[in-house]
Amino acid sequence: MNRISISLLGAALLAAVATPAAAAARDGEADLAKAIAGRTAGKPVDCILLRDIRSSRIIDGTAIVYEMNNGVFYVNRPKSGAESLNWTNVLVTDTHSSQLCSIDTVKLYDTGVRMTTGWVGLGDFVPYTKPRS
What we know:
Blueprint: H1 2-35, E1 40-41, E2 47-49, E3 53-59, E4 63-68, E5 73-76, E6 89-93, E7 99-101, E8 105-110, E9 115-121, E10 125-129
Antiparallel strand pairs: 1-10, 2-7, 3-4, 4-5, 5-10, 6-8, 8-9
């Protein structure tokens, strides 16, 4: 009977861990929709200038939003590694030019455990602008 209790407890813990992970992926899409609400998508581009990036925001399991100095948001849905995106990570970019491009990779650094926890292979950058009034 003790083994059954331990097995049930283990299954319950596994379900508790798996359920938030699945919910986070769904919430990522909602968070992205909220971040770009009221904006219109433009034609995707391969690269953005590093000097024009004001800030970046990780959308859990979904995308990276780069806010530019001119107010345009560029949304990047990584080609690989998007499931590793977590708002607690810091993006570590190692580029060899003045641009961040769809062929670049970005390391994910967790400041809590002080180590690299993954990486993403960037995709196209889709601009989102506010309509002119």
